């Protein structure tokens, strides 16, 4: 079950400059910076009330973010939703005809298991499913 909007992800070319910009814009410093080797990205997270903003910068030419920015300008890359049980949601969405970009959940940023829904099956929006990993 989808429980809430987890975060909005923004693709940026210069993470340091974007971090400075969003720190000024939002009036709050980021709470977390993280390298996600499996995705070849560096991330910065901001909390704004009950919402989060994630800035993403590719760290290699093979990164999905680097490829995205080669075709499109900086801006919204994906919308992420928290789910109770990511595997159950993946199975449900596949049954409903959605195309998943991952066969199984993988470890993402901010202590989450993640899976992405292909934009072609979600009205042009890249959707990320997130489940918090509990210790």
TrEMBL record:
Q: Does the keyword Metal-binding apply?
A: yes
The alphabetized list of GO BP terms reads: L-methylmalonyl-CoA metabolic process
Transmembrane region(s): none
Q: SUPFAM superfamilies, per this entry?
A: Glyoxalase/Bleomycin resistance protein/Dihydroxybiphenyl dioxygenase
State the UniProt keywords alphabetically: Metal-binding
What family is this protein classified in? Belongs to the methylmalonyl-CoA epimerase family.
Q: Which Pfam families match?
A: Glyoxalase_4
PANTHER family from the UniProt entry: METHYLMALONYL-COA EPIMERASE, METHYLMALONYL-COA EPIMERASE, MITOCHONDRIAL
GO terms for MF: metal ion binding; methylmalonyl-CoA epimerase activity
Q: Which residues form the VOC domain?
A: 4-132
Name of this chain's protein: Methylmalonyl-CoA epimerase
By its UniProt entry, which InterPro entries does this protein fall under? Glyas_Bleomycin-R_OHBP_Dase (IPR029068), MeMalonyl-CoA_epimerase (IPR017515), MMCE/EMCE_epimerase (IPR051785), VOC_core (IPR037523)
Protein species of origin:
Hymenobacter sedentarius
- Keyword tRNA processing (UniProt): no
- Top-level taxon of the source organism: Bacteria
């Amino acid at each position: 079950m989808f429980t809430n909007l987890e975060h909005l992800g923004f693709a940026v070319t210069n993470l340091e400059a974007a971090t400075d910009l969003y720190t000024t814009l939002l009036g709050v410093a980021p709470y977390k910076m993280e390298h996600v080797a499996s995705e070849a990205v560096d991330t910065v997270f901001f909390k704004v009330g009950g919402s989060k903003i994630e800035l993403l910068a590719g760290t290699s030419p093979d990164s999905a973010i680097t490829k995205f920015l080669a075709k499109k300008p900086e801006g919204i890359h994906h919308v992420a939703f928290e789910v109770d049980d990511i595997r159950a949601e993946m199975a449900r969405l596949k049954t409903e005809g959605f195309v998943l970009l991952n066969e199984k959940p993988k470890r993402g940023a901010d202590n989450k298991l993640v899976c992405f829904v292909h934009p072609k099956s979600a009205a042009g929006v890249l959707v990320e499913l997130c489940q918090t990993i509990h210790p």
